[in-house]
Write a structure and sequence with these properties.
mainly alpha, about 80% helix
Length: about 400
């Protein structure tokens, strides 16, 4: 009985496998995109623009993706989004192979891939509560974050860097192949995910006529959740500010080549995996508020170490600890949203939250590039530390007056 109670079920693991393949391809691109940008230009702002272009679509199409997730089946949206990304990657790989690639083309491709990601990620998060029980949300989200880390940080980046060394077009072609396999798995998911969710008896009604802004309006009226989204967005912006120029820092300050850069990113996956697999236990023991506070502080605060100690050992410490903390932050924040938001609004609220977060992330990437260009390569790390203090204090004070349990923050 215990094993059955704790089992996440075959449909979830099929869903997890599709997500893992998509994340593997994304991880390959995590290393390949900055390496391609750095090969085309030495301008830090131009390199950062490629990173920003991947997050900017949340500002443009994020709310629309949320409305789609509340109206269409997750299976259909996941397959359509990944199929579109396969087309974009095939076009980019061809252009790179033929020597036609420019920074403008890379930025455009990154933006279009980001548009597909807004649809895929929103639909995927609305699917999780329909695949597992409420008591299993932290565990399921932790396993999904673990798969994301393995693909995005552990396996993908070194593979992407190695493939880039073999041929600049190869990582993008392989990324397209992994997404094609993910589509096949998604299409094998239960038909229940092919139809939009309906509100349960305890949910507030969310009629379709409320439109794409309904989720944003609901979020604005929830003080605790609103604060959590805003401070998480600030932390994400700080994290991206230094990571957007990290390829240049690794090359110039640490003396790492393309493959060394990929290995450094992969090193952080150990901490990320630890964070994702222990997040549910940490939340059960210390409660959401404390776990969220510490994960915010570590994610944005530790990178300042590289402004003080610019060596490879410090870089390892930074990527390991920030990856672990960011994994815990993601699991805790996502589980809170999935519990608190009415079923009929879940897609739109998730999209609104991610729109705010990723818009801030895009601005953070551009800010990191601008700071590095004007004040030196270490400036984004200092910026991250300043944001860490402000965001952590803001969350701790804002979450203290209200009883956390009232909003499901156990």
């Amino acid at each position: 009985m215990e094993n059955q109670a704790h089992s996440l079920g075959r449909p979830f693991w099929t869903f997890w496998s599709a997500a893992a393949l998509a994340n593997l391809g994304d991880g390959i691109r995590v290393a390949a995109f900055p390496l391609l940008a750095a090969a085309l230009t030495d301008d830090p702002l131009a390199v950062a623009a490629v990173a920003a272009a991947q997050f900017l679509p949340w500002l443009v199409s994020g709310l629309f993706a949320g409305a789609l997730a509340d109206r269409r089946g997750a299976r259909t949206l996941l397959a359509a989004a990944d199929t579109g990304r396969v087309v974009v990657l095939a076009t980019l790989a061809t252009a790179v192979a033929l020597g036609w690639a420019t920074i403008a083309l890379v930025v455009a491709a990154a933006f279009l891939l980001g548009v597909g990601e807004t649809v895929r990620d929103t639909a995927a998060q609305t699917a999780v509560p329909r695949l597992v029980t409420d008591a299993q949300l932290e565990k399921a989200n932790g396993r999904l974050v673990a798969g994301e880390i393995v693909g995005n940080e552990f396996v993908g980046p070194p593979v992407g860097a190695l493939l880039f060394v073999l041929g600049a077009a190869i990582p993008f072609a392989v990324n397209g192949a992994t997404l094609a396999l993910a589509v096949m798995l998604v299409l094998s998911l239960p038909l229940t995910l092919a139809h939009r969710a309906t509100a349960t008896s305890g949910d507030s009604p969310a009629p379709q006529r409320d439109g794409i802004l309904a989720g944003l309006r609901w979020l604005v009226r929830q003080p605790m959740l609103r604060t959590l989204v805003l401070v998480s967005a600030a932390v994400a912006a700080a994290d991206t500010a230094w990571f957007a120029i990290f390829v240049l820092y690794a090359r110039d300050a640490l003396g790492l080549g393309a493959f060394g850069f990929g290995l450094l990113l992969a090193t952080g996956a150990g901490g990320g995996l630890l964070g994702s697999f222990t997040a549910d236990r940490l939340i059960a023991r210390f409660r959401h508020r404390i776990v969220l506070t510490w994960s915010m502080a570590i994610t944005a605060g530790v990178p300042v170490l590289l402004a003080v100690v610019p060596n490879r050992a410090a870089a390892v410490v930074v990527v390991v600890t920030t990856s672990a903390a960011f994994a815990v932050l993601n699991v805790a924040a996502l589980s809170v949203r999935q519990r608190l938001v009415p079923t009929g609004l879940l897609g739109r609220v998730i999209a609104a939250a991610r729109m705010i977060t990723y818009s801030s992330t895009a601005l953070g990437a551009l800010a990191g590039g601008a700071l590095a260009a004007r004040a030196g390569i270490e400036a984004p790390f200092v910026f991250s530390g300043v944001v860490a203090v402000a965001a952590t204090v803001a969350w701790w004070l804002a979450s203290r007056p209200a009883a956390p349990d009232a909003l499901g923050l156990r």
